[in-house]
């Protein structure tokens, strides 16, 4: 890992400012140092409230924006600015599914810093678990949750299908492309996560990577040199998509063909992507942003990113939000959704988590293709809810 | 609690001098009410499991998963129990009966691992021996790429053993210190070798002590949630938590019922054993047997004590300190910044649980110590069920009871504290009862003869004498509450984090560095509970 000079704890805010003023961020600090105004990394007591109480108005775009080579010379984000939105105030109960390893909490913390009267009490658990919890609570009467924020559309869809959602504000829905929101407007995407093929640029050129995953087991260059992380939710969504498109039998055959072709199992897709950069693997299956994390953490690492076309391997899943039925905080919840789709918050997702922003005014980082240039399969993201069937299939195939 | 025979005497006295039973009746009613309240959530588990159609229930009970989880759990419990005896008994003998150098020091280091919450131990071991852990980093320059995985059964056995063997150590040590040494001397004069004397005289004498500790270890291994979860080993607790998460309620309740039955089984054996301890676990012998001279064995014995202490104490604390000094992981986890409020939440919960336990324990303990009928010990026995209730089972029961019947309490601190009281009340009852037994009823007689009302006699005479026991009970409840993981995870209000939920959250996300401080604080605080225990252990 990179040796980071972590900007953490007590003086994070000031040092971040100084640091941003200096410009020319190093790659290492882009990752380890962009830990939000609250700092972190050492978890020390006293690292908790940054020592300085940053009130409203002291937070600027630079606080939402990441840093490092991928973020330099970006245009100002377009879209609705937070300044144009009504202030957030009151207590919001937020169920946070997945949370992208704490990164989403940084955004929540930023909003709490910006609005001293606003608190978001969060419950962070696996997205599918929280979906089931909300459904259960809703059946019993009412869920304590006001908003469900999840890293996976399948779990948002499950809650919506159970009739546990309330309506979303039109201002929010109108800014997001229809492919990335529920057809009935019950949930809305906030950040896109594309399935992709990280590859080692020294070992294979992009043109040699097939344009569909079905061709991978027949590609000699990829024999015994690929990796995947089948326990990871996003990978399972990809397999679920394949089941929806091609059926269980073909999916099973493909899983077995990949294993016969020789593929290594990893714990998570960040490791798969790192292994591609190390030359341990020629290529792998991973969400797109892991490659950007690797690139950002290491200068000139030999890792590239390829995308398949029109098949399960090109799935674009989203993190999204929905307002939960029975909330007594409807106005605050709506306002919160609008904040997460504001120019600054979308810049946060683009530059801090390297996800695809959901509003047209904000571009993805680096040389990522625009989300419109991707060729995702034509499936309804809400249908990705059948994870259980996928897990069974992966077990039967001996992959899990 | 070496007061068994005095206890019998007192009980006789108490029964013969029985005069005024009205306070007892009141106490009995109060105590029964408390114990019924505590048992209610467990009844729900059985009722919920009973709702399942018979065919479905059979299918669930005989499914491959159930069978393999049962076998896994048995393997874990057996492994941990056997390994704990193999470590705990030799350590007890070495520190109690031999001329081992620095005995006092080794006694403390052998008991101390109990203060490291097992999930923190597991977490440290994964960090040391896991993939890309400290050991892997050390070995990789030497060209060793693959080290055996720490995950799975052996890892779970290793960690649970290292942090629970002190139960065996402490109970064995207590019986070694209290048994009549003259018997061993007698055996020696009959030309038995040391080993024979040990096997034929000492071992039978201390066997109940070993068994008592072993059963505690078994109960702990059976109901521990954090370690198997971190070691990715499927046992009942982990499966119940996962099924609860996925809201597959029927299966979760079936597994809970199985786990509860196993735990109650262990508890039943334990209580029968302690009931039949007459003069074995604790006898009236006052003479210690002569010290065993280790001779050549001194070096290996020291090595053994040192190795265990290094694994249990030096390694985890060293790893935590290393996290503290090392910079963060691959990408930031700023959202997981520790907040002071988490500490206050932990302290507040623990204080509330301790206060309620002390108050609830008083009538139950008094009744059990001074009661006159068979019924008087019923509430006490009922509270002991709390010992056997694994946190995941209780969490599951209370989440659903709350959701269905008391929605205004769902995800409230009140329900969470209620869970702690169910689980930890036995500790308060135990310490309070043993201190009430130390009070000579004649004091009360004297106070009564001076015209005091029974209640004021209790307040003026008994209470001051039992205060230390009550305080010890409160301290134990406080400290065990601080460490409790599964029920806290399942029942905490949204946005309400504590030391343990925070540690759990960051370890799940892999930000080890951020868990270091809260984990060290937790270990330090738990260390205080050891002081309470050691102060109550009447050792020389």
SSE topology string of chain B: HHHHHHHHHHHHHHHHHHHHHHH
Poorly predicted ranges of chain B:
13-20, 277-285, 328-333
In CATH, the topology of the largest domain in chain B is named: MetI-like fold
Sequence of secondary-structure elements of chain A: HHHEHEHEHEHEEHHEHEEHEEHHEH
Please give a structural write-up.
The complex is a heterodimer of chains A (400) and B (540). Chain A is α/β, with parallel strands linked by helices and 400 residues long. Chain A has two domains: 61-190 and 314-368, Periplasmic binding protein-like II (D-Maltodextrin-Binding Protein, domain 2); 192-313 and 387-395, D-Maltodextrin-Binding Protein, domain 2 (3-Layer(aba) Sandwich), CATH 3.40.190.10. Chain A has helices at residues 12-22, 27-32, 61-64, 103-114, 127-140, 153-161, 170-173, 233-246, 248-261, 269-278, 288-297, 330-340, 343-352, 387-396, and strands at residues 90-97, 118-125, 147-150, 165-166, 188-200, 226-228, 263-265, 283-284, 286-287, 303-306, 316-324, 356-357. In chain A, strands 1, 2, 3, 4, 5, 9, 10, 11 and 12 form a nine-stranded mixed sheet that branches. Chain A has a three-stranded parallel sheet with strand order 7-6-8. In chain A, helix 4 links the parallel strand 1 and strand 2 (118-125). In chain A, helix 5 packs parallel to helix 6 (153-161), helix 8 (233-246) packs across helix 9 and helix 10 (269-278) packs across helix 11 (288-297). The longest helix of chain A is centred in the middle third of the chain and has 14 residues, at 127-140. Chain A starts with 11 loop residues before the first helix and ends with a helix. In chain A, 58% of the residues are buried. Mean pLDDT of chain A is 83; it is low at 1-56. Chain B has 540 residues and is mostly helical. Chain B has two domains: 23-44 and 339-495, Orthogonal Bundle (MetI-like fold); 62-326, Orthogonal Bundle (MetI-like fold). Chain B contains 23 helices and no strands. Chain B has helices spanning 4-16, 22-50, 54-62, 64-97, 103-111, 118-129, 134-139, 153-178, 181-189, 194-223, 226-230, 236-245, 249-275, 298-325, 340-370, 378-388, 391-405, 413-437, 441-449, 454-483, 486-491, 499-509, 512-536. In chain B, helix 15 (340-370) packs across helix 18. Chain B is globular. The model of chain B is unreliable at 13-20, 277-285 and 328-333 (pLDDT under 50). At the A-B interface, strand 1, helix 4, strand 2 and helix 5 of A face helix 22 and helix 23 of B. Chain A: This is Iron ABC transporter substrate-binding protein. Chain A: Residues 43-84 are annotated as: Disordered.
